[in-house]
Amino acid sequence: MTTLTTHRITARPLTDEAFAPFGAVLRATPDGAPFSEREALLDLSRGTPRFYVMDLVDKPPAFTGITRHRAVTQTLAAVGGKPWLLAVAPPYDVDVPDATPRLEDIVAFQIPGDVAVLLHRGTWHSGPFFTGERMSFFNLELADTNQVDHHTYRLDRDLGIRCEVVVPDSEA
Question: pTM for the full model?
């Protein structure tokens, strides 16, 4: 058994500007508000859209793999309004099948429970992570994303790394 080196990533507060390289933050708007530039980033044109409630069990903030979807944007939001964590890296070389993220580019965000995040096509991501035993998330992607567009880079195998997301002052 190989011993992995732990790489700690301090979770940042979520702001529009900080999250922009990875996607967009979607906040509640009044009913009848006009279509926004952020909403226009949604791209489900390469297949059949799938919107579902994803139930996750036991997802503490640590990971050894980071995934991207090259054909679609993905939108995630917590069901029930609890805060959660997400690790991301920029979507460089989206059209290069064997591209990999750089360890130094992986960051993590504290996502408030009352917003959704839209990930750019090709954004590397790991999570959602949360404290507690179980949590559900709204997930918008394509019907076959997890079968044909699920590209994972193994940090453990390729770099000997296990990433751990640290929350300042145990906020999440």
Answer: 0.94
The model's confidence at residue 170, banded by pLDDT at 50, 70 and 90, is low
Give the CA distances from residue 170 to residues 24, 79, 87, 167, in Å, rounded to whole numbers and listed in that order: 25, 21, 17, 5
Element of type H or E holding 77: strand 74-78
Angstrom distances, CA of residue 112 to CA of 30, 39, 44, 164, 171: 19, 19, 25, 19, 11
Report the distance separating Cα 47 and Cα 44, nearest Å. Answer: 6
Q: 127: how many CB neighbours lie within 10 A of its CB?
A: 22
- Residues in a beta bridge with 5: 161
Taking the domain 5-29+37-170, which CATH number applies? 2.60.120.480
- Dihedral of alpha carbons 93, 159, 165, 82, sign: positive
The residues spanned by each domain of the chain are 5-29+37-170
